[in-house]
Amino acid sequence: MSIKVNENYKNLAQNYLFKTIAEKVSAYTQANPDKKIIRLGIGDVTLPLTPSVIEAMHKAVDEMGHQETFKGYGSEAGYDFAIDAVRNHYEKSGVILKKNEVFISDGAKSDCGNITDIFGDNEILIPDPVYPVYLDSNVMCGRKVQFIAANQENGFLPLPDAIEKKSYIIYICSPNNPTGAVYNKEQLKQWVDFANESESVIIFDSAYEAFIHGDYPHSIFEIEGSRTCAIEICSLSKTAGFTGTRMGWTIVPEELVCSGTALNPMWNRRQSTKFNGTAYIIQRGGQAALSEEGFKECQENIAYYMENAKLIASALDEKGIWYTGGISSPYIWLKCPNNMSSWEFFDYLLNELQIVGTPGCGFGPQGEGYFRLTSFGSREATLEAIERMKKGL
Ligand SMILES: Cc1ncc(COP(=O)(O)O)c(C=O)c1O
Predict the structure, then answer these.
(1) Cis before 330 (ω within 30)
(2) For a 10 Å CB count at each end of the chain, is N or C smaller?
(3) Carries keyword Cell cycle (predicted)?
């Protein structure tokens, strides 16, 4: 007799996408140590934290070093100052949140995975292609997942019109990783109406909201009716360069009730039991990032990345390669030239041009034949990459 393991893990795709990429790149660099690789693959930022954030965190470190200002455990849901900073940020989009509806976390990935804890065995709707964590975290707990196809025909923005009306957990990522597609108000309203009518719950991932350019909702809570059907997960990772610093939040409105049970106290209970809060120093940094001055600095960094996106787009234009995104998101989603598969194009870019991107098929079956490039590189690396693409594609 031995210990039973979670057999659902056997149903996960063999390798996490980025692990396979890392292995391929490592094999290439070992075989070609003299070649300079440019990474436009993993969605990690490269610009450092901004001055406001650094100043706030330095101050917080000093506080931790003095008896009178030292902090031990904080509230699991976050310090009031961080919660209020998030609430103020939402107020700019006209969204009013109560204190107890905001839960500060160590980032969106944890919350995207952990949120499955408060739901039973429901059917799951996941856009295809999308950030792979939604799928894998549901596969890990044995949930039945259906894909909603996002493709060129629907502008990578699937709508609920053809979906059977029953209760689902519906994941929506807008702006979308990897396609960069953003829902407008009317389209999101269709999802909210569908969710309310079918007693579904939307899990809305707004990790890239700060990149939105134009009149698109930054939060699902800008949409009428959303407070009875949606949870929102967001992060400072891309907004403020917090990928290595770690702060995000989840919003669970008081009105969200499923099968007679309010989800807000459930999420509170889940977090209080399994999470001991985000570090005080980090929450001070997050508060600074969301302050008026701090957010302006973040927007300057985002503008830098978006200039990179424009440069990449202009190289693709020159080569006649179809792409989308790069306007309200740091990602450019392109169709692999010459009918190459995603991995064929990955190998071509790595072996011939020494550029690393991300194969579209890693984000779902509909991503096959597509490819993601990111604007998170340095200007210098981006310029060099586009020179190589202009010559070699
Ligand atoms: C759509 C989406 N959600 C969530 C995350 C995770 O963000 P965090 O760094 O806050 O865990 C990412 C990271 O790439 C993402 O692309």
Answers:
(1) no
(2) N
(3) no
